[in-house]
């Protein structure tokens, strides 16, 4: 007490009560110093009728145990934040990501490494300067028999969504992401060297899935911003996918989209087949070289397709503009009009064009088949130019237009 009294004298403060008197009761917010800092002292009691605040979520350290050629690693992580999983040098990798009830609303990560006796493995968990938590699982290089199974459970009842989950996985990967509801994770980013990726019933603000060589299957996916799918080789199958922007980049992989809805739909291929069925978009673009393009039941305000030698087939409903440009490929399809003013243009060379147009078409037409024969067979057509290879005129009175040209092959326009 002597030291305490001396300290009060030095500070020239009346902080010590007179001898025999109890100190004043603790009353937070009664001074100008503001509320107490959480964790530094007792918190304010809850108001009448209010439950006490939940304790803060605290991550645990990674627990690692090895026995008889088998290593088990586990960790609990507190959202929000960014988590990355990196796996390397395993011959077989199986990863599952799902949402469910977890202990205290924490992200649960568990991995089992089967590597045999005498094989070095590593399981680490670190936080970088940007605050991202990275979990790394690795085996001695060249150990093709080493296997890893990893499960990530995202909490459904967390106070805040996980900011980001990134998965970096090697060849020989099988990844299953399922049952991720709204408000669980904001950004999901997957990159796989080779293997299979399966997504089902997944919600996120943004999504990117990339596979160098393998298969991507996604069904019942809802993304608030952009959903991107990349495959250099293999195949990509999307069904019932909705997002503000859907991008597919499949230079050497076959692509099948079914029941996809987006404001912007962008597809880029190179030499494999592309098929879009029952797709809806404000603006839809397709760019490819070889292979084939099937657009069946595609509805868009603007549909823009460009190919080199890939033929284009399908049925389209357009509200503003249709543009199909093929360097040297057949174009065959049905055009329905979703508005009174639609501008349609189709060009190719060396291959025929066969287009069935809605009977509601009203406007200008120009059909050219240099070195071949042009046919325009819509009712009430009035021809201003009527040569075997060039037909031009109007159908009724309206703001729409159709321009079709193919050098060296016939062009046939009929009524739908």
TrEMBL record:
Residues 11-58 are annotated as: Disordered. It comes from the Eukaryota. Residues 16-27, 43-57 have a biased composition (Pro residues). This is Adhesin domain-containing protein. It comes from Coemansia javaensis.
